[in-house]
Amino acid sequence: SAAAAQARSAQIEAAIAHDPSGFRVLTGDRPTGALHLGHLMATLDSRVRLQDAGVEVVLVVADYQVITDRDDAGNLPAVVRDVVLDYLAAGIDPERSTVFTHSAVPALNQLLLPFLSLVTVAELERNPTVKAEAVAAERRQGRGMSGLLFTYPVHQAADILFCHGNLVPVGPDQLPHLETTRTVARRFNQRYAAAAPYFPEPEALLTPSLTVLGDDGAKMSKSRGNALELRATEDETVRYFRRARTDSERHITFDPDRRPEVANLLRIGAHFAGTTPDALAESVGAAGAGRLKAVVTDAVVEGLRPLRARRRALAADGHAVVADVLARGTMRANEVADRTLADVHELMGTMYP
Ligand code: ATP
Ligand code: MG
Questions:
Q1: Between 20 and 30 A from 214 (CA), which of 141, 197, 259, 331?
Q2: What pLDDT digit, counting tens, does each position of 238-260 carry?
Q3: Separation of CA 36 and ligand 1 centre (Å)
Q4: Among the CATH numbers 3.40.30.10, 3.40.50.620, 3.90.550.10, 3.40.50.300, which is that of 2-210+319-348?
Q5: 66, 74, 155, 204, 217 from 124: Cα distances, Å
Q6: pLDDT by position in tens, the chain (length 353)
Q7: Residue of the nearest CA to atom 17 in ligand 1?
Q8: Ligand 2 centre from 133 Cα, in Å?
Q9: For 167, phi and psi rounded to 5 degrees?
Q10: Pick from 208, 118, 105, 186: which is nearest to 154 by CA?
Q11: What atom of ligand 1 comes closest to residue 227's alpha carbon?
Q12: How far is the CA of 292 from the centre of ligand 2 (A)?
């Protein structure tokens, strides 16, 4: 349950503060567009925090997963480059963290075959996140769920277990996915490694269920065209918040249920100004939405200034920096995946002289 995961996550945070060395975090993004403010606030900042705390962080740029819910993967080389630049600009350090593209690690995908044998169709059918994504794909593409989408949680198990990841930052909606990974690990161990468990049963590090809204009041999303990209210029940022939706009430209050758009601006402003939404609402008060937008714009422009400066400097280097980071990350991921696959063959008895 979410409450249990919450309590366990607090324990894990305490354990990390004490000794981060036993933890390996696996997480990543689908390269469907440059990263935006929602990614930074909900995931990217906390990945950097974990890395800086000494946890090993492995980031998969999940390029194969782009085709789970769309026919046209877009300009993958350009988008992958954007995502990697966003990682680096946000503070991911390729000396300490591993960044790789999914398609470049074939041994990882070989784990799918045995893993698929460890789950039943009925179990996959019960996964609520798969159900929700199937509905979304149906709406977008007007056809039934593909086998790729249906088996998505098993792919995720391979992504996590290939490097023996034992900690996965997830929002509450992703908990069912992780349950599949835990099931796969447990059953693999029961079947092939009864004497000494081989795969860890990864745990969730529950991220706060924070949804950042876009300028139209809906969830900020790469594909909705309502996002403030991290790489946007100052002018674009000013215009973005000028057109952001608010409401007709003059006095600014933090009331997420009744006033979601205003609450969203307050959360964003508070995040970058190092205050709370309530305190920010108090300070704007009767000055109204115009004042609120000005305050939020300043906070975001200031808060993102170092990230954007780093990103521009990295991008000015052409493709060299990104190519180098991916080459190193992919090499490291391949070494790990090859070793895991060899172990799996050994355990399953499919290692031939
Ligand atoms: P797409 O439109 O292609 O689905 P997206 O912008 O919704 O892209 P995803 O790649 O689906 O981004 O999101 C990856 C993860 O980033 C999510 O699981 C979630 O944790 C986080 N995230 C994305 N958008 C937001 C948002 N608006 N608020 C909070 N978290 C977000
Ligand atoms: Mg999405």
A1: 141
A2: 999 999 999 999 999 999 999 99
A3: 9
A4: 3.40.50.620
A5: 20, 28, 12, 19, 33
A6: 778 888 999 999 999 999 999 999 999 999 999 999 999 999 999 999 999 999 999 999 999 988 887 788 899 999 999 999 999 999 999 999 999 999 999 999 999 999 999 999 999 999 887 888 888 878 877 878 889 889 999 999 999 999 999 999 988 777 877 999 999 999 999 999 999 999 999 999 988 778 999 999 999 998 889 999 999 999 999 999 999 999 999 999 999 999 999 999 999 999 999 999 999 999 999 999 999 999 999 999 999 999 999 999 999 987 899 999 999 999 999 999 999 999 999 999 988 88
A7: 39
A8: 10
A9: -145, 130
A10: 118
A11: 6
A12: 28
For ligand 2, the distance from its centroid to the CA atom of residue 212, given in whole angstroms, is 12
Ligand closest to Cα of 69 equals 1
**Tokens, residue 55:** 């946890």
Residue nearest to atom 7 of ligand 1 (CA): 221
Distance 324 CA to ligand 2 centre (A): 28
CA 264 vs CA 107, 218, 296, 300: distances in Å: 42, 11, 10, 13
Q: Is the CB of 303 under 6 A from ligand 1?
A: no
> Cβ(305) to ligand 1 under 6 A?
no
Return the domain boundaries, the chain: 2-210+319-348, 222-316
Distance in angstroms (rounded) separating the CA atoms of residues 333 and 98: 7
Question: Does ligand 1 lie within 6 Å of residue 38's CB atom?
Answer: yes
Query: Do the domains spanning 2-210+319-348 and 222-316 agree at the CATH topology level?
Result: no
- Span from the CA of 2 to the centroid of ligand 1 (angstroms): 20
Report whether 125 contacts 71 (CB < 8 A).
no
Q: What is the CATH superfamily name and number for domain 222-316?
A: Tyrosyl-Transfer RNA Synthetase (1.10.240.10)
Q: Which atom of ligand 1 is nearest to the CA of 30?
A: 10
Total Cβ atoms within 10 A of residue 60: 27
271 lines ligand 1 (CB under 6 A): no
Residue 211 Cβ inside 6 Å of ligand 1? The answer reads yes
